[in-house]
Structures are given as C-alpha cells and as structure tokens.
Here is the input.
Amino acid sequence: MKTKKIIIAGPCSVSSEEELYKTAKEIHKYIDVLRCGVWKARTNPNSFNGAGDIAIDWLYNISKEFNLPVATEVGIPQHVEKALKKNIRIFWIGARTTVNPFYVNEICNSLKGENVEIWIKNPIYPDIKLWIGAIERFRKAGLKNLKAIHRGFFPYYNSKYRNNPQWKLVEKFRKIIPKIDVICDPSHISGNTELLNSVSKKAIKMGMNGLMIETHYSPKNALSDANQQVSPQQLKELINNIY
Ligand code: PEP
Ligand code: MN
Here is the structure.
C-alpha cells in the first residue's frame, strides 16, 4: 500500500495579502500545509527581502480562511517571537541558517516549551553531520516534532541543477536517523520548472515522505524565485503524476 505523501506548497515569498490569497484559494484543497516566506535571506541586499512582519498577519488570516496549517522560515529569535504571537506553529530553518550552530541554538532557545513543528533544511554544503547536528540541537531543546528537508547542495561545478541533489547522502541520513520524515524540495534543487517532475518522482520513488513545491498564482510576477515556481494548475498536474 502506498503511504500518503505530505504536500507542502505555496509561494517563495509574497508582496501582498491579495497575492497570497489568490494562490491559497487555488491550491488549498490539494495540499497539507501552505508555505510562504515572510523574511527572506537574500544573497544580494538589493533583492526583495520579503514583505516582513506585516506578512505574518496575512498568513494568520489565510490559515483561518482556508482552515489550513501555514509554515514560514525563521532565521532569528525575533522572527519566532513575531510568528508565535500570530499562532504560526510550523517553522522551517533555511539552508543558510542550518550552517551556523550559533543561529540554530538561538532559534532553539526561542522555541523552548512551544508546541511547534520544525523543518530543518540541509545546510548549503553536503556536510551530513552539520545537518544532523542542527536536528540534534532541536531535540535537545525538547522540540520533538521535526522533519528534515532535502533542498540540494551548492554546485561548485557546472550543473543542470540550481542545487545538486545527493540521493546517496539522503539514504545515509535516513539510516542514521530513521525516525524523522524527510521531505524533498525539488524547487530549490531544480531552479526551474523543467526538472521539477523528474526530481519529485525520484524523491517519491526512493521513499521520501513528501514534497515542498514553490507555487504562485502567477509565477512570472513573483518577486523571488520566479523561474522555479509553478502555477496552481502545474502543481495539480505534478501531484497527480508523482506516484
Ligand atoms: C525558501 O524555501 O524559499 C528558501 C529560501 O530556501 P533555502 O533555505 O532552501 O534556500
Ligand atoms: Mn525560494
């Protein structure tokens, strides 16, 4: 029997509540959790940094409107504090945060005693110990509801991927900590929409527990990661095709 896969989808980031609403309205029936970046850790400071604090209110409203759990990225304790105030209960740790044990500790401390779910993305470079170490820090802080996300690794050489998947590393990871669900993020692995289907299928075939797919009602107008986001229609097709 096939186990049900967890489907997480939503925009990389949004610039208005209306934009988020339009996406959520079209995809809420097909997904388990809506993702949306609020504070974006951009490589270049002149890029769109996310809508910031105000967008937490949008996530709160959308969650209520569609009765759907929502998740956002937190990078510093102030993010956690602001999101908790609006009852956001699922957080992911970005690849550029997982690399730094100081940041991870700070976030762990700010979450102690909270009933929350944390998704830990792999660090930018393929250091399995650093990835597991970050997960261990959350466990030690008493946070038990954890998932890992494979979003690929920085390609040092020419690659068709934005971030190279490392399936063998994921297999090893799952042997070391078998009890944790591992989600695949084909969007940040692919960097475009052409590779999404094959990466998603591969992840499902090797028994990963779900997918996180960046989805926007109008991808070409997205202010971050426009090239890799799918439309709601493309998301539906992708979900129907993964098994
Ligand atoms: C994201 O999920 O939008 C994101 C920035 O992820 P990552 O940390 O994997 O780059
Ligand atoms: Mn993104």
Observations:
- The radius of gyration is 17 Å.
- The beta strands are 6-10, 33-35, 70-73, 90-93, 117-121, 146-150, 181-184, 210-214.
